[in-house]
Every structure is written in structure tokens, then in C-alpha cells.
Design a protein that fits this description.
Function: Interconverts GlcNAc-6-P and GlcNAc-1-P.
Structural class: alpha/beta
Bound molecules: 2-acetamido-2-deoxy-1-O-phosphono-alpha-D-galactopyranose, zinc ion
Cofactor: Mg(2+)
GO biological process, one term: UDP-N-acetylglucosamine biosynthetic process
Protein name: Phosphoacetylglucosamine mutase
CATH topology of the largest domain: Alpha-D-Glucose-1,6-Bisphosphate, Chain A, domain 3
Radius of gyration: 24 Å
Pathway: Nucleotide-sugar biosynthesis; UDP-N-acetyl-alpha-D-glucosamine biosynthesis; N-acetyl-alpha-D-glucosamine 1-phosphate from alpha-D-glucosamine 6-phosphate (route I): step 2/2
Oligomer: single chain
Distance between the termini: 53 Å
Length: 549
């Protein structure tokens, strides 16, 4: 039939590389960009099928985030704006690995039948496509569009260069019937920023707030977009470096949130003149955010304010608003009042000191395996769920039920009262921070307002708690899938004996902790360790790595 003929014709333009096995990991498909065109083309077909199946807009993003500029990747944003349903991952893998057009078409036909996908029927579909600034993105975008367009009645809408979180946001909001241009995205952030600024109590700050913020854009899409966004933000004094413009350096090369967080050193473009200033760093596709500062002149290492500390700051802010709202005397007895559940979601990579700190404040802290999809899903179980990975990926999710409650509350409460202001702050925060996925741009703006609300310098924020010394190392192994973990990745099931060996090493140190897991995005096994001194933790990580390799 016609559909088959179209697919055969277009698939022949994108032959797969020989002898490469692709796998849809925690961040979609990633590889050296020169071998990706068939996979991206096929991901376009997949996205189109997903759109027909769900009757909704689906997103497709071309990026390899913090990885080398010569790498690229592709991932699908599902109709709700989050990661693609895990049920479709095996099909994604089969599609990417089909060795010829005939197999490919058979796979598509079988899956369409199994999933009742109405090819060429009454249903039409749409896929929204975005890419980061990688040079290979342009050709891969064409491959993706051809994939989408080879499914009858599905249109491909090319949004050009976007941050990953912008694309997720657009998919989520378009499927809620809203307008989703980049201007709409920027407006939503800047409007809720202004609302929050107006809700800051006057004259409470003990010291004048230093508005100056330096941002490392990783020479990627985030720096460029922040330049646009900051024009709408009065009161913030943002200076973007490593914007990716000519002569500023290469994408992710000794710059960016991944580099700063893992290596703990100053990114290029920052120097001794910046000692003591508040600095932030985005990753290559702007879905990660960390802060840092140079403690003193001449020191090479930085003081890192990682995702855990961003999480702690935001959790304090949210908790404070809930505390103001939960004023027993004034709390109405109306039927819509209910105990609001706040949940904090972390992974095993969270610094132990952050977990202790949050628990001491009485917060509920839960753990999931690494990977945004797990954290996001868990956070969505709460009225307000805050999740962050130590590497700076995270957001705050507000449930529909809670937001309805909040809106009713705001109507009900005395105008201008402290309680009404607390409710308004929560509502503004929910509009500011990306509800689809972790977003360094909206996250950065929220952090900036919260610091002002608290009246805190970056030094004060940093001193919330003292990080335990930690170390991460990668171990190259023949087959990383030989390492199998359980219990949110904190213990090893296989190979047998490895966990016992780790336990013996850990027991030698005070406050020792270590775990190993196979990476979902790189061909390595990762080792993470904590102990009470840097020297001890380096030794611990080293010995554990030797047990792995
Ligand atoms: P892997 O490679 O599975 O460790 C890395 C990050 C994750 C997550 C994904 C997706 C670490 C230790 N791991 O996953 O947290 O961000 O990339 O980009 O930072
Ligand atoms: Zn990223």
C-alpha cells in the first residue's frame, strides 16, 4: 500500500551503520553524530506513530547535552511533556537496530497492529522538533523531519534551535491548548518572576542584595537563550559568558555544569576578578544548573553549590510558604482544606549531608534510581514534589489538585494578608518553574528570586550545610551490563561478591559510603564515594574502582 511504499523509499535514504548497536537509554539515543542519521530518521517515524497513537502532539529533541560537540543524540518527549513511556523503549531499540528496510517496515507494521495505530486513517498527528547548537544538528533535523513525514497525515513542525526544557514545555502546554512560541515561554517566566519580586517583604534583608550574577552558558544553546530572556527581567544583573558566539570557545569544552560539578574547577572565561561573586553554570542543552564561587584568589578549586543545595534552598522556601499557610488559628474549615504533602526526591548521588539536613528539617526524603524519568514520576506523587540530581537537573512539580486548592485559597484569604501572599508565592513559583522537566533557565530565575526573598548571599546559601567530601570515578569495562544493582542502585547484586568487597572497604572509613552502577549514557561503570576527608574519599573511590575493573 501507499504507506509502505513511502516508508521503503525514504528509509533507503538513511541506511544504518554496520555493526553498531543502539540503545534507548535514560537520555534517548546518543552516539558519534556521523553514525546517527538512520537512528534519528527512525526516531522521527517513532514520534509520528506515538502522535497517531495518543492523538496528541509529540516532541523530538536532537541533543547530546553535556557530551562532546562531535556527539549527538535524539529523544522523544511524550504527550505530557515528560520522557517517552518506557513501554515503547523496546520498540525504539528494535527500530534503531533493524538492519534493512524490509525488517524495518515489518517491525513498524507489526507494532502498529499490536498498538492499534491508525495508519492513513481519520487520525492526524504532529511532531514538534527542536535541536541544540551542535553543527551536526542541522542535517539530523532533516533526517528527523523525513522520518516524521514518511508517516501519512503526520506533520513535522521545526522549532529550530531550542533548549531541551523549552521543547518539553512547548509539548506539555500545546497539549493543554495553550500558545507555545518562545515568546510565550519567556513571558511566562518573566511575568511570574515579576509577581514573585512584588511579593518579597520590604526591608527584611539584613544586607543589600548583590544583583550581579555571572553565568557560564557552556558555549551552548542556554547562553544564547538567556541573553534573550534577560531583556525581559528588570532587577537582575545577569552577565552571560561562554555564549557560544564566535571566538568564545567550544561547546562543553572545559565549560558547563557537568564540567564544573564533576571536576570542581573554574570554567574557561572566569578569572581572578570574579572572586566572591555569585556564578552559575548551565550544561550544553540547558537542563542542568549549578552555582559556584571562587573562595579566594589563587585557589584553583571552586566552592560548588550543586543540585542538592539548590534543592535545599527551594525546599526551604516552599516549606516556609506552607508553614505560613498552615496557620492553625486562621485556617478555615472549608471542605477544600487538606494537609498538603511535600516530598523531596533524590538519588544515591545526593550528598549525604544534604539528605541529613533535609530530614532534620522534618521533610520527607525518598530515593529513586538515577534518571529523570524515575525522579519525575516519584515527585508527581506529591502535592508538591521537589526533585534534583546532584548534577543540577531538577524541578518542582505541583499537582493539579493542589493548584486548584491554591487558587481557591487565594480567593478566600484576606487580601494582602501574609497567608494570601504565601499562597500567591506558591502559585507564582508553579508558573515560573518548568512543570515538564528540569530547566536551568527557569530554575536559575527562581533561585535568584528566592535568594532575594531570603536576603541571602551565595556564601550564606553555601553554609546551609557542609558537603561531605565525595569522589566520582568512571571505570571502563568490557561489559557494563554485567553490573546489576538493586535498592535504588545502592547495592550490587551481580557480579557476586562485589557488594561484600565494597562493604569491607566502606567499613574502614568514618562516614564512609560507596556504590557502583552502570552508566545509562556512557559505556562505563560509575563509582561514587563519600567519607569525612577528601584524602580518605579519594582512597575509597580508588579501591572500589579496582574491585570493579
Ligand atoms: P548516567 O550516565 O546513567 O550516570 C547521567 C547522569 C544522570 C542523568 C543522565 C541523563 C550522573 C552521575 N549521571 O546518567 O544523573 O542526568 O546522565 O543526562 O550525573
Ligand atoms: Zn543536559
Amino acid at each position: 500500500d501507499r504507506q509502505r511504499a513511502i516508508l521503503i523509499k525514504s528509509a533507503s535514504l538513511f541506511p544504518p551503520p554496520l555493526g553498531v548497536k543502539f540503545s534507548y537509554g535514560t537520555a534517548g539515543f546518543r552516539a558519534e553524530s556521523s553514525i546517527l542519521s538512520s537512528t534519528v530518521f527512525r526516531s522521527g517515524i517513532l514520534a509520528a506513530m506515538r502522535s497517531l497513537k495518543t492523538g496528541s502532539l509529540i516532541g523530538l529533541m536532537i541533543t547530546a547535552s553535556h557530551n562532546h560537540v562531535s556527539d549527538n543524540g535524539v529523544k522523544i518527549a511524550d504527550f505530557h511533556g515528560g520522557m517517552m513511556t518506557q513501554d515503547w523503549e523496546p520498540f525504539a531499540n528494535d527500530l534503531a537496530n533493524a538492519s534493512n528496510s524490509k525488517d524495518l517496515i515489518e517491525l513498524i507494521a507489526d507494532f502498529a497492529k499490536k498498538e492499534n495505530i491508525p495508519f492513513g486513517g481519520s487520525q492526524s498527528g504532529e511532531v514538534l522538533l527542536g535541536r541544540d547548537t551542535r553543527p551536526s544538528g542541522e542535517a539530523l533535523m532533516e533526517a528527523a523531519k523525513q522520518g516524521v513525514r514518511s508517516v501519512i497525515d503526520v506533520v513535522a513542525t521545526d522549532m529550530g534551535i531550542l533548549t531541551t526544557p523549552q521543547l518539553h514545555w512547548m509539548v506539555q502546554n500545546r497539549n493543554r491548548g495553550l500558545r507555545v512560541t518562545e515568546f510565550d515561554y519567556f513571558s511566562q517566566i518573566s511575568n511570574s518572576f515579576r509577581n514573585l519580586m512584588e511579593l518579597i517583604p520590604r526591608g527584611t534583608s539584613p544586607e543589600p542584595f548583590d544583583a550581579k550574577l555571572l553565568v557560564d552558558g557552556a558555549n551552548g544553546v542556554g547562553g544564547e537563550k538567556l541573553e534573550g530572556l534577560k531583556k525581559l527581567l528588570k532587577d537582575l544583573d545577569i552577565h552571560v559568558r561562554n555564549t557560544g558566539k564566535e571566538g568564545e570557545g567550544n561547546l562543553n569544552e572545559r565549560v558547563g555544569a557537568d564540567y564544573v560539578q564533576k571536576e570542581r574547577v573554574v570554567p574557561l572565561g572566569f578569572g581572578p576578578n570574579d572572586v566572591g561573586l555569585r556564578c552559575a553554570s548551565l550544561d550544553g542543552d540547558a537542563d542542568r544548573l549549578v552555582y559556584f564561587l571562587f573562595p579566594s584568589e589563587g585557589s584553583k578549586s571552586i566552592d560548588l553549590i550543586d543540585g542538592d543545595k539548590i534543592l535545599s534552598l527551594l525546599a526551604l522556601f516552599i516549606n516556609e510558604q506552607l508553614r505560613i499557610l498552615d496557620n492553625k488559628e486562621k485556617m478555615g474549615t472549608s471542605e477544600y482544606d487538606y494537609p498538603v504533602k511535600l516530598g523531596i526526591v533524590q538519588t544515591a548521588y545526593a550528598n549525604g549531608a544534604s539528605t541529613d539536613y533535609l530530614k532534620e528539617l522534618g521533610m520527607e526524603v525518598v530515593f529513586t534510581p538515577t534518571g529523570v524519568k524515575y525522579l519525575h514520576e516519584k515527585a508527581a506523587e506529591y502535592d508538591i514534589g521537589i526533585y534534583f540530581e546532584a548534577n543540577g537537573h531538577g524541578t518542582i512539580l505541583f499537582s493539579e489538585k493542589f493548584l486548584k486548592w491554591l487558587e481557591a485559597k487565594i480567593q478566600d484569604l484576606a487580601a494582602g494578608s501574609e497567608m494570601q501572599k504565601a499562597a500567591q508565592r506558591l502559585l507564582a513559583a508553579s508558573n515560573l518553574i518548568n512543570q515538564a522537566t528540569g530547566d536551568s533557565l527557569s530554575g536559575l530565575i527562581l533561585v535568584e528570586v528566592v535568594l532575594r526573598y531570603m536576603g541571602w548571599s551565595i556564601q550564606r546559601w553555601k553554609s546551609l550545610y557542609q558537603d561531605l567530601p565525595s569522589r566520582q570515578v568512571k571505570v571502563k569495562v568490557v561489559d557494563r551490563t554485567a553490573v546489576v544493582t538493586t535498592n535504588a542502585e545502592t547495592s550490587v547484586l551481580r557480579p557476586l561478591g562485589l557488594q561484600e568487597a565494597i562493604n569491607l572497604e566502606v567499613a574502614k572509613y568514618s562516614r564512609g559510603r560507596a556504590f557502583v552502577r552502570p552508566s545509562g549514557t556512557e559505556d562505563v561503570v560509575r563509582v561514587y564515594a563519600e567519607a569525612s576527608t577528601q584524602q580518605e574519599v579519594d582512597a575509597l573511590a580508588q579501591t572500589v574502582a579496582e574491585h570493579v575493573g
